[in-house]
Design brief:
The chain is built from no helices and 11 strands. The strands form 2 sheets. Strands 2, 4, 5, 6, 9, 10 and 11 form a 7-stranded mixed β-sheet that branches. A 4-stranded antiparallel β-sheet has the order 1-3-8-7, with no helix packed on it. The protein has 117 residues and is an all-beta fold.
Length: 117
């Protein structure tokens, strides 16, 4: 069973920065893609950023150059550097991994990001 453990959320003022981390463990197969989704209260979960193995990153339209996703393949870890944060970035940020030949999806438990105005 794959486990995803997130860290790095917290409270920050508008214009500030946070760096999220997500470490995967327990995978018998290779991780195909890792990424981040978020969910604000009363809204659907949406894509923030995803990085396929050996591929280019894709970002949600709202990111507009403010966030950067990166992966450490040796550590099975994905990072999300978030700059110029806005109050509308507030929400629970979830790590997601697609693992193995069937691209089985696993989710982390989520980390809260709160941006104050």
């Amino acid at each position: 069973q794959v486990q995803l453990v997130e860290s790095g959320g917290g409270l920050v003022q508008a214009g500030g920065s946070l760096r999220l981390s997500c470490a995967a463990s327990g995978n018998r197969f290779s991780i195909n893609a890792m990424g981040w989704y978020r969910q604000a209260p009363g809204k659907q979960r949406e894509l923030v950023a995803v990085m396929p193995s050996g591929g280019s990153a894709n970002y949600g339209d709202f990111v507009k150059g403010r966030f950067t996703i990166s992966r450490d393949y040796a550590k099975n870890t994905v990072y999300l550097q978030m700059n110029s944060l806005k109050p509308e970035d507030t929400g629970v940020y979830y790590c997601r991994a697609a693992v193995g030949p069937l691209r089985t999806i696993y989710w982390g438990q989520g980390t809260q990001v709160t941006v104050s105005s």
